[in-house]
Amino acid sequence: MTSEARYLKLDYEKSIDAKKQILGSEISFIELTRRISSFRILRREEFDTKLKLKSCFHDFKTKLNSIHSSFPEQERTIITPKEKQQFKIIKTEKTETIRRQLPDFQNDIEEIQAKLARLG
């Protein structure tokens, strides 16, 4: 196989347009390679940042575990159903006292509003 050079005869305007298209393609290719290289650089920086963040989290977790281990152990109490019932009774008693006091507050508010109406 021998390589043969083949030529096409184009008029002047078509040859100018073809050169413009070739140069435009070269510009696009150069821009694409520039974007790819900047993307690679950014990905490398992202990877480095992720590694630093991972090591920081690891250090933080280690310090947190050491602090946690320095605290004394706390006894865990188990609440029986009878105690839960007592807590519910206390809670309902508190809500009842609040409900009983609510009308007193309403009366106080009405009195203050009446005084304001008389003054204004």
Task: Describe the protein in words.
This protein is mostly helical. The chain has 2 domains: 11-71; 79-120. It has helices at 12-70, 81-119. The protein is elongated and about 105 Å long. 0% of the residues are buried.
Keywords:
elongated; 120 residues; single chain; mainly alpha; 2 domains
Radius of gyration: 41 Å
Q: Biggest sheet, in brief? A: none
Supply the number of structural domains. 2
User: What gap, in angstroms, lies between the N and C termini?
Assistant: 110 Å
Low-confidence stretches: none
Anisotropy-based shape: elongated
* Tally of strands: 0
How many helix segments? 2
Query: How confident is the prediction overall: mean pLDDT?
Result: 87
Strand content: under 5%
Tell me the series of helices and strands, N- to C-terminal: HH
Short description:
With 120 residues, the protein is mostly helical. Helix content is 82%, strand content 0%. The protein has 2 domains: 11-71; 79-120.
Task: Please outline the helices and strands.
Layout: H1 12-70, H2 81-119
